[in-house]
Amino acid sequence: MSTLTSDTRRVIYQRPEALVDTSTHYCPGCGHGIIHRLVAELLDEMHLAPSTIGVASVGCSVFAYDYLAVDFVESPHGRAPAVATGVRRVRPDAFVFTYQGDGDLAAIGTAEIVHAAARGERISVIFVNNGIYGMTGGQMAPTTLLGQHTTSSPAGRDAGLAGYPIPITEMLALLPGVTYAARGSIADPPLIGRTKAMLRRAFQVQLAGAGLSIVEILSTCPVGWGMTPTEAMAHVAHDVVETYPLGVMVDRLKVPATGAREA
Amino acid sequence: MVIAVNQVFEPLDIDAAHCKGCGLCVDVCPHHLLELDTSIVNELGYHPTRLTDAAACTSCVLCARVCPDAVFTVFARPKGT
Amino acid sequence: MVLMTTATAEPASQADQAPRPVLMKGNEAMAEAAIQAGCDAYFGYPITPQAELLEWMARRMPELGRVFVQAESELGAINMALGAAATGARVLVSSSSPGMSLMAEAMSYMAGSEVPMVLINVMRGGPGLGSIGPSQADYFQATKGHGHGDYRVPVLAPSSISEAVALTADAFEVAERYRTPVIILADGVMGQAMEPVVPVYRTPAREPAGWELTGAVERDPRVVRSLHLRPEELEAHNHHLQAKYAAITEHEVRWAGEDLDDADIVIVAYGTSARVARTAVERAREQGLRVGIFRPISLWPFPSAELAAVALGARAVVVVEMSAGQMVEDVRLALGGRTPIFFHGRTGGMVPTPGEVVEAVVHAAAVTAPHLAGHPSPDGTKAVTR
Fold first, then answer.
1. Residues A35, B38, A228, CA angle at the centre, nearest 5°?
2. What is the CATH T-level fold of the domain B12-74, as seen in this structure?
């Protein structure tokens, strides 16, 4: 507590304005909290909040509209890229993003994300991959690792029965309509910083009038994984990256493809 | 500007009421200056984090970067404090 | 800049004489009516028998600088529409029966989120992949609620292409007045046939209501959603929706009657069935039967009170549908057993003929002949379905 009669301390970091000043329902150590914060920081830094229309999806992040202080439309499960397409097409000047989990994007919503990407929709997709269905109690997701124990793969994910984790972002990066595709993680502060840079780049791609931008972020679900927050971060840093390596898969704004969609 | 005598510079304001005691800041502080205060249970039901030695904090901001609940406000240490 | 239109693309005719009718295909006429009504965005997917509507929009919307998207599926289309409509845009979606099934989920979300839009269902034979012939077998789907939860959706049923044109403008108006999706229930005959249409259109006024997502510039953020986790909150929201539906029921009933003044047998039919019934009425009257038609135009809210009043003076009601019998249940509910009900239906894409309807009327007349008056059969319904 400051003992100065007027607070003249120079702030070098504070809670972003675009992050609503309220406690979230997320579990302790949940990656959503960090990622929401990064999005809010960028909305502040890039002055995007007044023109933003966000598309919330279904999963633990269903309440994103209570935590980010921008206009939001709630989408049915998986349909966010289609809903965002509708928003984008009638509001050319809006800043539009979707915020989706792994079930939303890579299970029920696979058609919607593939086609929004194919059309090169000028939206930014924030894809939170924690390899599990947290909201419904910890079931297997399309991105669950082989051998990972979940409530619907209690013996560990078996490729013969349940297939392999889907590298959906690598698949999407093949499409000319995807201008920027990257994967970051939140496992430690330097990685968090690099993920924020990826999100910033994605937002810049949208503002430049280029195609779809997607940032997949390896995140944690301590409760679903049966780990402490500390253990969960270590799991992301060491184990998840073996299946889902970090990096920028494609940045077509630097190297435009022929026939790139016009702004 | 009025300066009180024997002031102590506080490099961090911590919103203890919103802390969920996840412990990620404790892991990340390079000087091991943060700990969960087990003598307090906040309204959310958690032991909030606290700074054990304000003088040793270098305002590196790593705690704020990792915090899922944005409980930290970090201030630059004035020269000479 | 907002991609919304405030003017008609072509001025309504102000000629001294009435404008000449134009021969138009139903699907195209409805599309043009939506354009003239100020439709900002169209989302759709090809499906017979409404592909021409999508194709008309594909050509016209870009000409006018408006939005057209052929989505990856009807599921994509309806969700794009949800997003666009959430920003206050005037949105049209069209499909046919199987595609409408894919939209069931979104109907519930749109009702719960109170998002206005117009959907045109050009009904075809079902169930399942069915046929591409016309049907009226989506009555239950449209009026009882496609999707889950406590909600209703206004349903308008034109019975001619000209009426479809007029109802398209009405549909946008009703949708926006009450913040609800509205269904125009057409069928394959209406979609595919060509009729003279007088090209005079109506553009309902726009009145932003303060819920639209336009970007939180100098105002608090707005959220369009249907999730209300606290039961007390969701109950309150449901009460609000029910109050809305009560208002719609009070103010948006539409129906038309023909030859009812002296009718003692009343045909109840809508859409193409009503067109067939009109010819049947002419022929039946030539045979001395006093027949009239009660034609619901709003299928929800169903004109129950109005039908009951008309049927009071009749000795039989004959319901004609291109289905195995769906609207007939609402007729039964409306009449409360007071008047015997007969039913004639065709399914699978078949259209009833005037002769069949006359036969049904003759049968009803025989069964309820005056000497039997006062002793109607307890179950007044006699199915004559083929």
1. 40
2. Alpha-Beta Plaits (3.30.70)
